[in-house]
Amino acid sequence: MSTAEDIVTEAPAVEAVPKRAMTLGFGTSLVVLAVLILVPLFVKNFIIFQLTMLLIYALAVLALNILTGGSGQFSLGQSAFYAVGAYTSAILMEHVGMNYALTLPIAGIVCFGFGFLFGQPALRLSGVYLALATFALATAMPQLLKLGYFEHWTGGVQGLVVTKPDAPELLQAMASWFHKSISQDMWLYYFTLAVGIAIYIASVNLLRSRSGRAFMAIRDNEIAASAMGVDVALYKTLAFGVSAGITGVAGGLGAIAVQFVAPDGYTITLAIQLFLGMVVGGVGWLPGSIVGSAFIIFVPNIAESFSKGLSGAVFGVLLFLVIFLVPHGARQVAIVAQQLIGKLKKN
């Protein structure tokens, strides 16, 4: 055989989509789920509220991870989709009187359409230019929400107050049998957890499907993907739509949890926080979304505990240390931990 034939014969086969690259093992997933279910039973309502926001931001980070980690498209405009989802739920609840649970799929559909349409002109852009285009979207959105034309629906600069839902009467009755009560914060936490689990499972299955493989082919080599018959334009806009849809659901949940929506709550700062959460959690690793969410929620508070006047500087130092020590985020920590556990089992 020729040298070329020897190389082809000896080259090891590479699995297109690693089966466990995007999620945790079954046992680890059960442990994490058990912790998420049990922790709210032993903490105060304020901590439960923080945990609810942790889950909500984790959904938004997961959505960005599908876009960037899945299809390789950079976005600094997720705060715009988050805002659209939040206002959609708030308007439907306060002006239409719709049930809060029904507003979430509508918010997702509206944001999916918004993201899909935005993805059409963005097809001509890539890399830093796409990031700048989405940056412009995030910068413009708060100003658009303040326009007087939409003030009747959005509340303008003052925003809208949202009514926090109570737990269903059936659950309240069941809890009373055990001399317990379900607070609004606890119910909303478990409701958010159920929505988050459903979206997480759907996202994992999406990335393992034919569409997910098309996303990753585009991420790795757009020209090669096109040569192999992948409709690059369709899948790139589809990735934008799916990411925006999930972010819209997260925005709707955020509006319900915070009980208030206002334009200044969805500035470019939120978009940068979500991008930071994705990097800290590990790009392309969906379970890292909750780690990245915890980082952007709790680390600023830790930094402020060191020095209120220099909290920003302390946060910057902590962020630098994380990126320097674990450049691949929580995914790198998980891989090292898995290797250590494997060695201990062998010994």
Task: Describe the overall structure.
Helix content is 73%, strand content 1%. Mean pLDDT is 84; it is low at 1-21. The longest helix is centred in the first third of the chain and has 27 residues, at 45-71. The chain is globular and about 60 Å long. With 347 residues, it is mainly α. The chain has one domain: Orthogonal Bundle (ABC transporter involved in vitamin B12 uptake, BtuC). The chain has helices spanning 3-10, 26-38, 45-71, 78-96, 100-122, 128-145, 151-154, 169-177, 184-208, 210-220, 222-227, 232-258, 268-281, 288-306, 311-325, 330-346, and strands spanning 160-161, 260-261.
Task: Sum up the structure in keywords.
globular; 16 helices; two-stranded antiparallel sheet; ABC transporter involved in vitamin B12 uptake, BtuC; 347 residues; mainly alpha
